[in-house]
Amino acid sequence: MKKIAILISGRxxxxxxxxxAKLACEIAVVVSNRPDALGLKxxxxxxxxxxxVDHKNFSSREAFDKALLETLKRYEPDLIVLAGFMRILTExxxxxxxxxxxxxxxxxxxxxxxxxxxxxAIDAGVRLHGCTVHFVTPELDHGPIIAQAAVPVIQGDSAxxxxxxxxxxxxxIYPMVVQWICNGECxxxxxxxxxxxxxxxxxxxxxxx
Length: 209
Ligand code: GRF
Description:
By secondary structure, the chain is α/β, with parallel strands linked by helices. The chain has six helices and ten strands. Helices cover 32% and strands 25% of the residues. Helix 1 packs across helix 6 (159-182). It binds 5-O-phosphono-beta-D-ribofuranosylamine. 5-O-phosphono-beta-D-ribofuranosylamine binds next to helix 1, strand 5 and helix 6.
């Protein structure tokens, strides 16, 4: 069974969705860069090993990533799942796990990379917004896209109401994609991803469909 490591910084609702989906993979460890991350408590209750690598204890991004790599190495993960992990990873970290780091981003990439995606989507007047699961590359929020879910932007939406709608879809697509990867159904071809087997033609979904 493939082993995954889940990296968090806060609430951990995507972590919960992945754990609750009871996937055919082993969650080897949950690592947080913040000792007070709520998701750590959830993981502990589930008897999943947890680690904290507090970024505040490191003077540089490189030093933090080195410590993170050393921690992860002990668990020998086949896949690293970023679930609300709010640190930018260095190239050195990413190249230590080639094609083995995935992230969920709350927008339909390549639109709205970075932060405050929901408010920016409202301000831009887009009618569709959503979330994207992608492989992580050194360029922030630019890696090959594995799956996307679209949600409507409804008149009168606040950033919070839109975020809640997107989050529902995050919880739907992220566990599914983690399973696909563990099954070997996602392969990178340059800057795009081919889906095969059960994942074929399932890289998109729509709100409440
Ligand atoms: C999610 O919206 C995710 O897309 C973004 O950070 C948020 C994390 O939420 N990267 P949670 O910690 O999984 O609840």
